[in-house]
Write a structure and sequence with these properties.
The chain is α/β, with parallel strands linked by helices. The chain is about 35% helix and about 15% strand.
Amino acid sequence: MGLKHKITNTDVDFAFRKTVSITPSFLKKHGIKGLILDVDNTLTTHDNPVPAEGIPEWLENMRKNGIKLIIVSNNHDERVKRFAAPLGLDYVCDGGKPLKRGYTAALKKMGLTAAETAAVGDQLFTDVWGANHSRIKMLFVEPMEPEPRSKRFIRFKRVLEKPFLPKKFVDDKKE
């Protein structure tokens, strides 16, 4: 990433078009033993209690390959628990992203260090800043869908993020 990303702390380690494109072999290659997951527009659409297509199977594949998983969300307990419980995921709600506290709590719950962990999320000013402040690798994913009109603040942030979004995606490469 360039100087503007360093100055604005919007540098990502890797970018993916879809969460389900992140593979256990990719994680192991980069020494990642655990993932801190965002919910809205990363694992499902906004305020949806049902995971997006392919997410339950992706989570199970991660578990089978020994990858620890936890959600860190700025949403309240009711929203996060309703999503996480059926998937058997531990979580930290009211995570305060981009502050470190949610990430620190997640690392403690997983028993991992920042060097062994990556965050997966779709927003630069919450997920990316939080991971960077916490010195956790950042796996940026494109949002699953545009935010609904009711999410005006997030829609505004998306406009501000545009110049800093990644241009190269791991899953664009044909292997």
